[in-house]
Design goal:
Radius of gyration: 19 Å
Strand order of the largest sheet: 7-6-5-8-9-4-1-2-3-10-12-11
Protein name: Universal stress protein
Number of helices: 8
Domain UspA: 129-248
Biased composition (Acidic residues): 287-301
Organism: Haloarchaeobius litoreus
Region (Disordered): 250-301
Strand content: 25-35%
Oligomer: single chain
Length: 301
């Protein structure tokens, strides 16, 4: 491999993924959605935040939803967190009752500093990982995340560069990604490199996800999460789509929260879990502009 990824001017410390990475996992907590055991094992090198959410009808106050369903939701989220703790991973939990799922997921991802957001579709053993490369930020951040998660694994990785106009050089991008993985110690025999054109990259990635155990892709703007977490019947039919890790774009500089940014449309419960419980509950009842109320219930180890 002639490409020296360490000297690539498009790869900088500012674009690098933190290690260990932090993964936000939103789950439909009252609908029985969970995280498959093979996926728990795959994600163990990362720090996990399980976000159990329930979307309420617009006419239902979030405080009412919290009063009715909080205990049940907390129990379900704790069951998921227990799997990560037993696998040796670090995990935090939150429960949210909201009127706007997408805004809630984005808000919590910003708050916890998530590297990526996971769509936890069913999967078997993680043996083949598709890394969809669609932009320059994907090269540094996607490869960093994959390298961190697969450092002690033997899964195969397919680097798939997608061109869609705009002058993006997908071939050079996947070469950089390939070189970076090899310089991180990956066996070249585990890496496949492909490049193809696409006018609809998000949906082409989703369609091809049936061939792989996990898909890793860059955020590339709000439409990606809306497409992946939305209600596209063809996509979600029969659970045919693999789990998707969406690596987040670098966040905008944080601004101090003020009262004028808060509302009463969202209710959430925060908890951080590790080796053992710490006694005590703190129900803060915070609200913000996403229509969500936050209540904190903390355990940490």
């Amino acid at each position: 491999m002639s490409w020296d990824a360490t000297k690539d001017p498009m790869v900088s410390d500012e674009l690098s993924v933190r290690e260990p990475p932090k993964i936000l996992i939103p789950v439909r907590v009252l609908e029985g959605q969970t995280v498959p055991e093979p996926l728990v094992e795959f994600l163990t090198p990362a720090e996990i935040v399980v976000l159990g959410y329930h979307v309420l009808p617009e006419q239902t106050p979030t405080e009412q939803g919290s009063m009715q369903f909080e205990d049940r939701a907390q129990e379900a989220v704790e069951a998921i967190a227990k799997g990560f703790r037993e696998a040796g991973g670090g995990v935090e939990t939150r429960v949210v009752f909201t009127h706007d799922r997408d805004q809630t997921v984005d808000r919590v991802a910003n708050e916890v500093g998530a590297t990526a957001t996971l769509l936890p579709n069913p999967t078997g053993e993680v043996e083949d990982v598709l890394v969809a490369v669609r932009g320059s930020i994907d090269v540094a951040r996607l490869v960093d995340l994959v390298a961190a998660l697969l450092a002690d694994d033997d899964a195969d990785v397919t680097l798939w560069g997608l061109t869609g106009g705009g002058g993006y050089d997908a071939e050079s991008a996947v070469q950089r990604a390939d070189a970076t993985l090899e310089q991180r110690g990956f066996d070249p025999e585990r890496i496949t490199v492909e490049v193809s054109g696409s006018e609809t990259p998000i949906y082409d990635i989703v369609a091809r996800s049936v061939e792989f155990d996990v898909v890793v892709m860059g955020e590339g703007g709000p439409p990606v999460l809306s497409a992946l977490f939305g209600d596209d019947a063809e996509r979600v039919a029969e659970g045919a789509v693999a789990p998707v890790l969406v690596v987040r774009d670098l966040p905008e500089p944080a601004e101090e929260a003020t009262d004028e940014h808060q509302s009463t449309d969202e209710v959430a419960t925060d908890a951080s879990d590790s080796d053992g419980p710490v006694s005590g509950d703190d129900h803060s009842g915070e609200t913000d502009e996403t229509g969500e109320t936050d209540e904190t219930d903390g355990t940490e180890a």
